[in-house]
Amino acid sequence: MNMKHFTTFVKDQVLVIQFDMEDKTVNLLNQQSLTSLKSLMTSAYTDDKIQGIVIQSAKDSFCMGADVNFIQKLVATHPNSETLYQKIWEMQSFLLSFEKPTVAIINGRCLGGGLELALACHYRVGIERTKLQLALPEVRLGIIPGLGGTQRLPRLIGLENALQMLLKGAPVSEDKALSQGLLNSITTEKSALKQAIDYIHSHNPRDHKDKMLNMYQPDHLMTMSAASALAKKQTQGCYVNVENLLQAVYEGHLVSLESGLKTETEYFVKTLLHPSTQAMLKTLYIDRQALRKKAKDALENHPITQIGIIGGGFMGGAIAAHAQVQGLKVVVIETDQERMLKAKEYIDSLVSKYSQTNRTKPLPKVTITKEYQKLKGCELVIEAVFEDLALKRQVLRQAEQYMDDQAVLASNTSTIPITLLAEELVSPKRFVGIHFFSPVAKMALIEVIAGKLTNKRALDFGKALSAVLNKTPIIVKDIRGFYTSNVCMGYIYEAITLLTEGVSPTVIENAAKQIGMPAPPLALVDEIGIDVAWHILQEAKKDPEASQPSQAVLDLVDQMYQQKRLGRKTQKGFYLYEPKKQLWPELMTMYPHIEHDFESVKKRLFDAQVNTAKTIQEKGYISKEEANVGAILGLGFCPQTGGPIVNKG
Ligand code: NAD
């Protein structure tokens, strides 16, 4: 089907090209949209009546970047590096030099390939009050910019600023974009076109000189080596894209822009064809998008406007704040005036941290109350009280009495089986597990747990909530610890086992970092709390189906629990926190030391997670795709691998 991607009109001898993909809610760069843009621009070059070109968007955002499905297809159809290079160079060379003055008018998000298109223009005008976000986020997807970002950005805003954007992949603020010269101006929607046209009438592209950046300059060489060292420290050399990105920037700035762009294309191709990139794209983009799409579809069938939360503590309060910022009305139930006040202060502080100060619409209301009657009108009610079976059952029963008949009831429990919680409910079918991760606003995952009796509608509400809260849901069957906690505990138990076998704790922590884990296991269990681990172990002991660690692990956790070494919360655990964080020295002498093989320690920490994930997936409790997405988004499991379950599909 021939989709329309652009509409055009002419004003004051300027061709205005409006990006507006007919079949999509956002604008993306792919083979078809780039070809149409090229054909519109080349006909403008030969039309004497046209003095210049404006590219703008008719949607809420300028462009979200390259269509990853298109990149994936490109790789599948051109698996050989030479033909892939040719194909990508064809696109690069179209952006190489625009023959007539060209201005990008940017609104909303301008990401990845979208920003690279804007960078190829001679001038960039931002439209104020459109939540402008300019970023090159490719590094986060495991790739590198491939339409000139590594070459034009440093030449435009300087090496240090550009490396910050390229390596972090995060958007820059409007003010920064303006002061660094990424945007030439920010103005109202009304005057943007006039400004663009004025620029075009007063400029000739031949007078436009790309700024040069002399990489041989000592301060540039120093910036480059500092960035490489920092990147190495942060990524432990696990990410081929980060290394290729730094090489493309370095080598590309020893030569002209055109040669630099060729260098970028070479590194882009090298990155794309690397197995790690393919695995990351599959999990973090293709599979994740598919899960998000299912969540969006569920939301269309089950709109959510108001939720209830029972318990406004650490998690309940954070869920309330995040939901409010995302546009939901929220009712929070607490026990008494004092706790209501505490919950209010906590929610307000999180809201002011997370909501944009220049928001256009007022935030919806949060009601904090003791009265369960106020749950009327909530489409979904989430229980988030203390992790105690009897208490949870009691508040769930109470909620059931006041909720609307059609409303869905959920629990944010992290360990108690959903089926067990549902036992005393009048309508267990509408009860589902919705497991959030902390910090709620930041973590991208929600685990939706299906109890034995949970119906599809309740599961769909879990997915729909994920869509409203801008998160990715995975669906897991109701096993003790669900999915992510099991994988996480597998990792922690293996670390403690290694420790009890006499491996140095420093070696264990370093080995974990080197396989790409963001949090080393002993530091992680200190954050979670040794008491939490102890309780999980006590519950697991009662369950013949739960995996049991060795007696040595049970003994060490028990000893630390009895000694109140509970981790960060008591300022002592596997680490000491005062005067500064360091491994507890006694751990070094607690077990007879053995010589270790560093590679085998790395392998054991990796395999412990992979084996747990595989066992759960092979028993049919979770799909391969969800297991991979869940491990990476929920635990930070070695993202460069694409997840614990080999999944090339
Ligand atoms: P918390 O102790 O901070 O908060 C619990 C809140 O529930 C308190 O504010 C308390 O006043 C309130 N509460 C107790 N009884 C109540 C009742 N009868 N009616 C209304 N409110 C009542 O605990 P938390 O860390 O927020 O954990 C809550 C739940 O979330 C637990 O099930 C926990 O397992 C789960 N969870 C916690 C985390 C985490 O990182 N802490 C992560 C995921 C899930």
Bound molecules: nicotinamide-adenine-dinucleotide
Gyration radius, in Å: 27 Å
Total helical elements: 26
Distance between the termini: 26 Å
Q: How would you characterize the overall build of this protein?
A:
The structure is a single chain. With 649 residues, the protein is α/β, with parallel strands linked by helices. 50% of the residues lie in helices and 12% in strands. It contains 26 helices and 18 strands. The strands form four sheets. Strands 11-10-9-12-13-14-15-16 form an eight-stranded mixed β-sheet, with helices on both faces. Strands 1-2-3-4-6-8 form a six-stranded mixed β-sheet, sandwiched between helices. The chain has a two-stranded parallel ribbon with strand order 5-7. The radius of gyration is 27 Å and the shape is globular. The two termini are 26 Å apart. The chain binds nicotinamide-adenine-dinucleotide.
Question: What does the secondary structure layout of this molecule look like, with pairings?
Answer:
Elements: E1 6-11, E2 14-19, H1 31-45, E3 52-57, H2 68-77, H3 81-96, E4 102-106, E5 109-111, H4 113-120, E6 123-127, E7 133-135, H5 138-141, H6 149-157, H7 159-168, H8 174-180, E8 185-187, H9 189-202, H10 218-235, H11 240-252, H12 257-272, H13 275-301, E9 306-310, H14 314-325, E10 329-333, H15 337-354, E11 366-369, E12 380-383, H16 389-402, E13 408-411, H17 418-421, E14 431-435, E15 445-450, H18 456-468, E16 472-477, H19 484-500, H20 505-514, H21 521-528, H22 530-542, H23 551-562, E17 575-576, E18 582-583, H24 587-590, H25 598-618, H26 624-635
Parallel strand pairs: 2-3, 3-4, 4-6, 5-7, 6-8, 9-10, 9-12, 10-11, 12-13, 13-14, 15-16
Antiparallel strand pairs: 1-2, 14-15, 17-18
Nicotinamide-adenine-dinucleotide is lined by residues 310-316, 333-335, 339, 384-387, 391, 395, 412-414, 436, 438.
